[in-house]
Write a structure and sequence with these properties.
This protein has 623 residues and is α+β, with helices and mostly antiparallel strands. It is 29% helix and 33% strand. It folds into 4 domains: 87 residues, no CATH class; 173 residues, endopeptidase fold (from Nostoc punctiforme) (Alpha-Beta Complex), CATH 3.90.1720; 60 residues, no CATH class; 217 residues, Porin (Beta Barrel). Strand 21 and strand 22 form a beta hairpin.
């Protein structure tokens, strides 16, 4: 029905006009009903309940996600039905219908298709024609940029769309369609409070894709996954026109209810009406990984490719070479030796790995301004002359692919004995994972907790209380690399039990940060040392605290994992002195989404005769 839409023409601007003409020919024998009859037909067909219509007006659970009255035409009395009535009136009954069709071309296209109406060419839509000329769309991809725990707005990854196509000159053009907010701040409490109440300014942009790709892979060290979406031509055009409708809309960004994942979910509903109803469908939080997994579950993904971050690539290859091979590459790239003797690297596979490591590492050094462009060019010529016969193949672990990622939410039930008193426990983590969960990128360990709540019910009396509330906690145990370095870090904002030097237990709120180093003894054995400091508040008393510590993480057979840690807490609860803590936790995997965790901890103050101990087990489900 819409084949004429993608017929070749001199200018891409006439693609949309071609669709209109083709549709007009198909409906030329039809007399268009008047507005009351047209509205009656639309309501009889229940178009207001259609998922695509609700996606075009960005409605979720009966409420508009966009409050801009320039976009929501029935803002004063909003409902999906009222918005449909007003839209029909503006597009087919008002004196300004030509201007409204230029403003809402996607609504016009979809309603005409649903109602089998003839469409008039939009020859006077100057801004629309300029847009379609600059943004061709022969293919649509779903793009996922991996997590960046050091940047609050992207600590769960980022998802956006890519539009690709050839313009009227036959040149490939790629554009990113992205929704984000500016959260470049260290004031996390203020950031989280603002997002929970008023939200933050949201920025919707259509920009050159290669610029954004370079930003993620080079400046932010994030892997970028490209999932090409299976679409029909007219659907691609409908999506492109809807993006035009959003160009001047005022948006608010909320981490938990309207983030990049929510917006892309709505856009993909234009492609497949059932995407929002496809698992995983967490009613409290939609994450970027959820969007990818839904598209995969519906069979929308046609192909998948990854562009690795430069430092990720260096670390990944470094793990596959021995220390002597890595050292030889480092000395060559830094200019300590003139020639890189690839023949001494051993097998053809090692030869290929060393060549690729040298190529990537010299790029890293240039970006860090460690070597000059002249030295880089010299090294580049040497490598081009000695390219190995065996091609390099990058191995990306399946766990790094967001299609295969575990869920982003957790619940757990357990039993705890603390200082001889027994409790039942229940915990809910809306997002996202703990240090004992599987590592997503395969090169280190990480933890991210947002709004985790744990309640205790005493088995000795009627006590029922909040034992822990973690507003925000992030931790990265990134192994040190001889080539690119690497610092581990942690941040924690929480209300939880604290132990003083007198072995007394009291709940307190505290904000701490820690920095340290992690070393990979083997690919499954990690040790770390860190130094933390922060502020605490207990019974209206504000105090400082410091906490040096060491630990060991072990990845074991059958998905098991162990964590051993020892740290000191100086001035805990503002009582002075030093409290020593030892924690041991063992994770047992029961199924792909359930685990059993057993832990033991001991806290001892300056008085060696006093000790606080805790033993617990927790059954955990990830969804």
């Amino acid at each position: 029905m819409f084949l004429g839409f993608f017929a070749s023409s001199r200018k891409a601007a006439f693609l949309f006009l071609g669709l209109c003409c083709t549709h007009a020919l198909l409906g030329a024998q039809q007399v268009q009903p008047d507005l009351p009859a047209l509205t009656a037909i639309a309501l009889e067909k229940n178009l207001d309940a259609h998922p695509v219509w609700q996606a075009l007006i960005h409605q979720t659970e009966g409420k508009p996600q966009i409050q801009d009255s320039g976009f929501i035409l029935s803002a004063a009395h909003f409902s999906s039905r009222n918005e449909l009535k007003v839209t029909l009136a503006e597009l087919f009954g008002s004196q300004t219908r030509s201007a409204m069709r230029c403003k809402f071309p996607a609504r016009y296209l979809w309603l005409a298709q649903q109602l089998n109406l003839a469409m008039e060419p939009l020859t006077d839509c100057e801004a629309l024609n300029e847009y379609t000329e600059k943004v061709p769309v022969d293919a649509i991809s779903l793009i996922f940029a991996s997590e960046n725990l050091n940047q609050p707005s992207s600590m769960m990854g980022h998802v956006f769309l890519k539009l690709s196509g050839k313009n009227h000159e036959g040149l490939l053009r790629e554009h990113a369609v992205t929704f984000y907010t500016d959260a470049d701040t260290i004031n996390l409490p203020k950031l989280l409070l603002q997002n929970a109440s008023t939200g933050m300014p949201g920025f919707f942009s259509v920009l050159p894709y290669q610029e954004l790709l370079s930003q993620y892979t080079e400046a932010e060290d994030r892997n970028v996954w490209d999932f090409e979406i299976r679409t029909e031509p007219w659907i691609r055009e409908l999506l492109r026109l809807h993006l035009f409708e959003l160009r001047e809309v005022q948006l608010r960004y909320y981490f938990h209810t309207y983030n990049c994942a929510n917006l892309i979910d709505e856009l993909l509903t234009v492609v497949h009406a059932n995407i929002k109803a496809t698992p995983p469908a967490d009613p409290l939080w939609t994450t970027p990984k959820d969007v990818v997994k839904r598209a995969h579950a519906l069979g929308l993904i046609d192909s998948a490719n990854v562009t690795p971050a430069r430092t990720w690539m260096v670390r990944s290859i470094e793990k596959q070479l021995n220390a002597d091979q890595t050292r030889a590459v480092m000395r060559w790239a830094n200019g300590d030796v003139r020639e890189l003797d690839l023949e001494k690297m051993g097998s053809d596979a090692s030869h290929a790995l060393a060549w690729q490591l040298a190529s990537t590492y010299k790029d890293f050094l240039l970006a860090q301004k460690t070597i000059s462009p002249a030295v880089w060019s010299q090294r580049q010529q040497q490598l081009l002359q000695r390219k190995p016969a065996l091609p390099f193949e990058l191995h990306v672990p399946d766990s790094a692919n967001p299609q295969n990622a575990p869920g982003d939410s957790q619940i757990s039930l357990g039993h705890t004995v603390r200082d001889g008193r027994a409790y039942l426990s229940a915990s809910y983590l809306p997002a996202s994972h703990t240090l004992l969960d599987d590592s997503a990128q395969g090169l280190g360990q990480s933890e991210l907790k947002l709004a985790q709540m744990t309640v205790f019910k005493s088995l000795n009396n009627a006590d029922f209380f909040l034992d822990e509330f973690v507003l925000y906690a992030s931790q990265t145990q990134l192994p040190w690399s001889s080539l690119v370095g690497g610092v581990s870090r942690a941040v924690r904002l929480a209300y939880e039990p604290q132990y003083s030097q007198y072995a007394e237990t009291r709940h307190a709120a505290h904000a701490t940060t820690a920095w340290g180093l992690t070393y990979a003894i083997t690919k499954d054995l990690f040790t770390y040392a860190e130094l933390g400091a922060g502020l605490g508040l207990s019974e209206r008393d504000l105090y400082w605290e410091a906490s040096p510590g060491v630990g060991v993480l072990v990845n074991e057979l059958w998905g098991m994992k162990s964590h051993f840690s020892y740290h000191q807490q100086h001035n805990a609860l503002g009582k002075g002195g030093v409290t020593e803590h030892v924690d041991v936790t063992q994770k047992l995997r029961l199924t792909a989404s359930t685990t059993l965790e057993i832990s033991w901890s001991s806290s001892q103050g300056s008085n060696k005769d006093q000790r606080s101990t805790q033993t617990a087990w927790r059954w955990k489900s990830i969804f």
